[in-house]
Every structure is written in structure tokens, then in C-alpha cells.
Automatic annotation (TrEMBL):
Listed Pfam families: Aldedh
Record organism: Bosea thiooxidans
Taxonomic superkingdom: Bacteria
UniProt similarity note: Belongs to the aldehyde dehydrogenase family.
Database matches in InterPro entries: Ald_DH/histidinol_DH, Ald_DH_C, Ald_DH_CS_CYS, Ald_DH_CS_GLU, Ald_DH_N, Aldehyde_DH_dom
Keywords linked to the UniProt accession: Oxidation, Oxidoreductase
CDD domains membership: ALDH_KGSADH-YcbD (cd07097)
Annotated protein name in UniProt: Aldehyde dehydrogenase
Active-site residue numbers: 244
Annotated ranges, domain Aldehyde dehydrogenase: 11-470
PANTHER family reported for this sequence: ALDEHYDE DEHYDROGENASE-RELATED
Length: 475
């Protein structure tokens, strides 16, 4: 069956075909998808531009009810969606279900935000004049989303875009088209007017570039390299952009930390969901006094993690997404070995019952922050330990990176916890919690090469998806 793109309320074919296989079992062909081309991109934007003005003028309740229907559709289909995501993306079923539920909560949250469109009424410096500050939709928003969270990340873009009256042209990663089609089916069934929401399946250099060339604003989640190119393209067109990119997130473990808790936090943050999270704890920065015991405790836990088929009930770590990512991870393991990092555990490809992209969770010790393995984002189940003398050196190492997304500290000292919170160069901080794991109603984003533009999620999303209008009225 050739799966299709959603354009103007209709499911249409594509110029080329793309076959998707299960990363847990490469003999399992999931489906073949029709890839959009130039004609489909043009049709999607034409449909969106025709439909958006009426959607932008719709009542707040109309838009809220559509989002409530989307949320209900996600919740009602949660088990089916989780199975699709696990089979296609390699996430364990519990991880997949958790992501699906998060997406439903995001849609429900913005159903409420649609009714709370902010504005102000101010007095004027002139007599008998009133001033009103209101917000209008931006227009047609191009959404470019990744494969690692192919349900939650799109929904925290789709939901606010629709809540605030915009038209949407969504280009998901071509690595996870099946779950994208399933989400688009739920959106299309919500009574949303035809053309307001459109789905295009295709590769970034082709469809992504065309979306950037036609949209009124771009919200992107992906690599920093791609994000920089998109930001330049948006600047040339003088359109707004929102970039959520990479991370090389530090988890600082101080001598006074609870050792067992710190090891659990590190393993959770670094290895679950195969380490394929921009918020993953990839640099474990540990002070001298606890270092050796911490490395030992982590290595013991990591060695016991059950790697396997994503649909199996006892699997804790599924496969990485595809051959490209698999080879990239193995390449970084070789790089770390070449830099004389000590392999504490893992470090090899695994051959299991079914042929898939299985990699043993890998921990390197005796690394320095100058090593390439600590400078570049691996995006896989690979973490390193960096030994430091004290808190001051730990903070300096944590900040010595081009990224600044999430940072954590394990300590029982409130003095150090508060100092870390104030001085670490990251958009999000965690105290005795994994660096990966955030709430859906709070702002998400980082600093430096990790993020660019207004924050995503929560009530802060209104800053990107609306534009301010100041009106003067003679009383």
C-alpha cells in the first residue's frame, strides 16, 4: 500500500516511493510512502493560503474545539499509535506510549490556550485616545520536525500554530512517515477546515527547502548544522524562525551526591530511548571523591540493561533508528577509543534474534573535555565520564561547550545547587533529576548553538505563533 500526503483535505500521491523497514527487524517492511515533490509543495501552500484567513477569523471556541478533538483522537488511539511508533522508530512500547500521551496532553493544553489569547488595553498620553494591543496569526507556518520524537515534537508545534489561527504545512522526518500519517489522520478527522493543516512527506534538501521558501515562518527541530542553514535562509526572506537544535548536556555529580540516585539518574538520562534525545546526559562530569564509585555503579547498571526488539515487553533499550545513525554511533565509539578514552562497558554492535540496528549502551571513562567525543553530539547510547577536582572545575567544564540546552547537578548541597542553577549556561537545569524529561506546559529551549528564537511549549509559544498589532482609537 502506497501511503500518501495530506493536501487541502485530500490524500494525494507523491512523485517517488520510499520503503520503510522496522529497525528492530530489517526483514519487516512496514509500508511504502509517496514522497512529495515540487507540485505537492505548491498545492499544499495554495490550499493553506486559501483556508487560513477564515481560520484566523474563527472564534476562539471553534479553534479550541478542534484542538480538543485532536487531543481526544490521540488519547482514544494511544495504543495503536504507540505500536506504530515502536515498530517504525525503535522505541520501546512504554516509551512510545509515554510520548503519545504527552502529545495528547499538549493538544489539550493548547485547546485551553486558544481561549486565553492575550492582549492589553492601555491609556494613551493623548486625551480621549485608547490603545489596544492584540495578536494576529503569523500566516502559514512551516513545521520541520525530527524522527526521535515524531509525535510529541510535532504536536508542540502543530497545536499552538492552530490554536492561534495559523495555517500549517508540516514536513516530518522521512525516517518516520507512518506515525506522521497516523497523526495527520487524527487532525484531519477533527473537523478542521480543509487546507488549514497539510502534511508533506519528503527529504529535507527537497521538500524542506521548498517549505522554507514558501512559508511565513519556520519552526524547526533537528541538528545545529541544518538549523544554521535554515536560519540564514529565513533571514534572507525576512521571515521569523524558531530553531531547537543539538545538545552536549552535562550532568555534574559532586562528592556529596547520593551515589545510588546519581547513578540511576545518569543511566536514565544518557541511555534510555537509545540516547536519541537532544536533552540526553552525554557528559558526566564527576568530582574526585565519588568518581571511581560512580563509574563502577554506572557500568554495573548499564551492563544489565536489556537491549532488544522494541515490541518485546522486557526490552529496555531498542535499536537505533537506521543504518546511518548506527554507523555514526559506531564511528564515534572508534573516535573515543582512538583518543585513548577507557571503555568502561559496551562499545559493540549486537547480533540478536532479529537483524536490527542494535548497539550495546556504551560508557567511556578517563576522558577530557577537549576530546572530540565530548565536543560533538553523538545522538546514540554513548556517554562519557570526565573527572574534575571540585565544583568550580565541574561548572567550568559544564559551560565549556558550544551547546546550552539542558544541564543537571547531583548534590545534597543547596549552596551548590543554587549556584549551579544561576551560573550554568543552559536553558534548562535539573537538580537530582535526569537532564532528559520536561513538562509539556513549561517553556522548552536552550542557549548558544542549542536554540535560536522564541521558546517552544507552554504559554510562551504565543510569542512565535502570533504577531503584535497596536491599535489607537479615538474615544
Amino acid at each position: 500500500m502506497l501511503e500518501k500526503n495530506l493536501i487541502g483535505g485530500n490524500w494525494v500521491g507523491g512523485a517517488q516511493a520510499l520503503e520503510i523497514r522496522n529497525p528492530s527487524d530489517l526483514s519487516d517492511v512496514i509500508a511504502t510512502y509517496g514522497l512529495a515533490g515540487k507540485g505537492e509543495v505548491e498545492a499544499a501552500f495554495a490550499a493553506a493560503r486559501k483556508a487560513q484567513p477564515a481560520w484566523g477569523r474563527a472564534t476562539l471556541e471553534q479553534r479550541s474545539l478542534v484542538l480538543e478533538a485532536i487531543a481526544r483522537g490521540i488519547f482514544d488511539n494511544k495504543d495503536r499509535l504507540a505500536q506504530i511508533l515502536a515498530r517504525e522508530g525503535g522505541k520501546t512500547v512504554p516509551d512510545a506510549l509515554g510520548e503519545v500521551m504527552r502529545a495528547g496532553h499538549i493538544a489539550r493544553f493548547f485547546a485551553g490556550e486558544a481561549l486565553r489569547m492575550p492582549g492589553e488595553k492601555l491609556g494613551s498620553v493623548r486625551p480621549n485616545v485608547d490603545v489596544e494591543i492584540t495578536r494576529d496569526p503569523v500566516g502559514i507556518v512551516g513545521l520541520i520536525t525530527p524522527w526521535n520524537f515524531p509525535v510529541a515534537t510535532p504536536m508542540w508545534k502543530i497545536a499552538p500554530a492552530l490554536a492561534f489561527g495559523n495555517g500549517v504545512v508540516w514536513k516530518p522526518s522521512e525516517k518516520t512517515p507512518g506515525i506522521s500519517v497516523a497523526i495527520a489522520e487524527i487532525v484531519a478527522a477533527s473537523s478542521i477546515p480543509a487546507g488549514v493543516f497539510n502534511l508533506l512527506i519528503g527529504a529535507g534538501p527537497d521538500v524542506g527547502a521548498a517549505v522554507i521558501a514558501n512559508a511565513d515562518a519556520i519552526s524547526f527541530t533537528g541538528s545545529s548544522t541544518t538549523g544554521r542553514r535554515i536560519a540564514v535562509a529565513c533571514a534572507e526572506r525576512l521571515i521569523r524562525c524558531q530553531m531547537e537544535m543539538g545538545g552536549k548536556n552535562p550532568l555534574v555529580v559532586l562528592d556529596d551526591a547520593d551515589l545510588e540516585l546519581a547513578a540511576d539518574i545518569a543511566v536514565n538520562g544518557a541511555f534510555f530511548q537509545q540516547g536519541q534525545r537532544c536533552t540526553a546526559s552525554s557528559r558526566l562530569i564527576v568530582t574526585n571523591g565519588i568518581h571511581d564509585a560512580f563509574v563502577k555503579a554506572c557500568a554495573e547498571r548499564i551492563a544489565k540493561l536489556r537491549v532488544g526488539h522494541a515490541l518485546k515487553a522486557d526490552t529496555q533499550i531498542g535499536p537505533v533508528i537506521d543504518d546511518t545513525q548506527f554507523r555514526k554511533n559506531l564511528g564515534y565509539i572508534d573516535i573515543a577509543k582512538g583518543e585513548n578514552a577507557r571503555l568502561a562497558t559496551g562499545g559493540e554492535a549486537l547480533e540478536l534474534e532479529t537483524k536490527g540496528y542494535y548497539l550495546a549502551p556504551t560508557l567511556f571513562a578517563d576522558t577530557t573535555n577537549a576530546m572530540r567525543i565530548n565536543r560533538e553530539e553523538v545522538f546514540g547510547p554513548v556517554a562519557t565520564v570526565i573527572r574534575v577536582a571540585d565544583y568550580e572545575e565541574a561548572l567550568a567544564v559544564a559551560n565549556d561547550t558550544e551547546y546550552g540546552l539542558s544541564a543537571g547537578v547531583c548534590t545534597t548541597s543547596m549552596k551548590h545547587a543554587r549556584h549551579f542553577q544561576r551560573n550554568v549556561e543552559a536553558g534548562m537545569t535539573m537538580l537530582n533529576l535526569p537532564t532528559a524529561g520536561v513538562d509539556y506546559h513549561t517553556p522548552f529551549g536552550g542557549r548558544k548553538a542549542s536554540s535560536y528564537g522564541p521558546r517552544e511549549q507552554g504559554r510562551y509559544a504565543v510569542e512565535f505563533y502570533t504577531q503584535i498589532k497596536t491599535s489607537y482609537l479615538l474615544a
